[in-house]
Amino acid sequence: MDRKIDVVIDKSTWPVPGPAFPNKFHTARRTVTVNIPGVLLTIGYLTTPASVVGVSLSEYWAWVRYLHAISSRDDLTLSDDFASLDAHQKTILSDDFGMGLPIYWLLDKLDIQSVCDGRYFIDFVAASIGATTKKISKRGPRKSPDFVALDEQGRFHVIECKGTQSGTEYRSKQFGNVGLGRGIGATGAIAQKNTISFPRAKSGQKLACGLCLETYQSASKSSLKIIDPDEEEQFTVTGSSIVYARDATIRSTLAKTLRLSGFAASSDFVTAPRGATPSSQATTGFREELRRSTVVKKRERVRSELQDKIGRTVDIIHGEELRGREATIDLPKPVIVGSKEVRQIVVRQGFNARILTDISERGLIEEPLEDLSADIAPDRIKVMAEEQAAQLKIGNLFASEIELL
Questions:
Q1: Which residues contact 44 (CB under 8 A, 6 or more apart)?
Q2: What single-letter DSSP state applies at residue 221?
Q3: Do the strands 381-386 and 112-117 form a parallel or antiparallel pair, or are they unpaired?
Q4: 3 state SS of 235
Q5: Which of the residues 151, 307, 391, 397 has the least number of beta carbons within 10 Å of its own beta carbon?
Q6: How far is it between the farthest Cα atoms of the chain?
Q7: Count of C-beta atoms within a 10 Å radius of residue 87
Q8: CA-to-CA distance for 403 and 388, rounded, in angstroms?
Q9: Which residues contact 154 (CB under 8 A, 6 or more apart)?
Q10: Integer Cα distance of 55 and 264 in angstroms
Q11: Do the Cβ atoms of 176 and 142 come closer than 8 Å?
């Protein structure tokens, strides 16, 4: 189930001096092919929060809901049914695809090893070094960037994503503009992607990605645009705190994949090992007693969860035992893929059983997971796809797959 989309990269926006323009990026408008099941797996992974209590609907709904959102055209457009959604539902769809499709495309282009939610990254790193952060808004120029991604070379990329169904002019408004000085700051994605800065040797790209989705009846084509204009940063990761930056990305990936595989208690501890939230840190008096008590209770829940051996064995990675979940879902209505009518999908998600044991024995710690990195640090995230199936794989750590029946 492949679709074509135009990708536009504006090289003129790359700051000089700054990180070099990526070798795998192109400089002219280019039509690329994306696999829709692969994009849906990416959306499901990204929208599963690293830190959450209870059930996350994002773990399931992308597979069922969005298969029907794509029209039968060869290029990526929305179906008639989804073109007529109310404004609120259209915004949710635009946001989800606005995150999922750019990251799906960037995984290979930037050799991404792990993707961490921007807000989690700031909260966790700040707490790790005993710092407080300026107030981060949920909206506006002081919003944290959507993602911090770590690549195979140890560089950190900051990525802000936007999605719209209102055309390219509205996308330009979402991108915003650079600051004009004299107290007039940057706006939109340009400001948000520059919330975090890294030492030059560890700094990768700072990208603003905008997805413009068109409908089945539109004469225009959907397009993804990527820019990298420079602007002043607000949260600085120093050389001495890089170890905590790596720890945040490792923990975020572990937490997401554990939760997707059904290990909620393990996910909760890994993502917030110092207390109730990622920003928890050592204090004094009664508050410190409460924090320590919370950590003990969370650790006990993890050991109970892993001893119960919840989850079934799922056969996804050859030669590795993965424990997780498998679900067969009847679609609300058929989807035509090629010449076949698809009425069901099967989704499998699993976490490496051997690494689960490592986490139980050695990973329930508050200190950085650097010593465990050879065993559990995420490998490069890869999405592999066929016409009626796709698989998202993170080394031998985790795999999820979707099969259209």
A1: 58, 59, 60, 62, 63, 260, 400
A2: P
A3: unpaired
A4: strand
A5: 307
A6: 68
A7: 7
A8: 6
A9: 202, 246
A10: 9
A11: no
What are the pLDDT digits (tens) for 200-224? Answer: 889 899 899 999 999 888 888 999 9
- Counting every residue written for the chain, the total comes to 405
Retrieve residue 342's tokens.
Answer: 């698809």
The model's pLDDT over 319-359, given as tens digits with 9 standing for 90+, comes to: 778 899 888 888 888 888 888 898 998 988 999 888 887 77
- pLDDT reported for residue 378: 59
Q: How many CA atoms lie within 13 A of 305 on its CB side?
A: 23
- What single letter denotes the amino acid at residue 237? V
With a CB cutoff of 8 Å and minimum separation 6, the contacts of 160 are 145, 146, 189, 192, 193, 207, 208, 209
Q: What is the C-alpha to C-alpha distance for residues 36 and 76, in angstroms, rounded to an integer?
A: 9
141-175 burial: b if 16+ Cβ within 10 Å, else e: bebbbbbbbbbeeebbbbbbbbbbbeeeeebeebb
Distance separating alpha carbons of residues 342 and 76, to the nearest angstrom: 19
> d(Cα 60, Cα 62) in Å, to the nearest integer?
6
Structure tokens at 272: 């917030």
Residue pair 112/151 in contact (Cβ under 8 Å)? The answer is yes
- Collapsing DSSP to helix, strand or coil, 85 comes out as coil
Q: Which segments within 257-380 are labelled E, that is strand?
A: 312-314, 322-337, 340-352
Q: What does DSSP assign to residue 132?
A: -
Q: Report the candidate in 161, 152, 192 with the shortest Cα–Cα distance to residue 47.
A: 161
| Sheet strands side by side (includes 223-227) | 30-35, 2-9, 223-227, 203-212, 156-164, 147-151, 112-117
pTM metric for this prediction: 0.88
Query: Is 344 strand, coil or helix?
Result: strand
For residue 102, the Cα-to-chain-centroid distance in whole angstroms is 10
Q: Which residues contact 2 (CB under 8 A, 6 or more apart)?
A: 33, 34, 35, 36, 385, 387
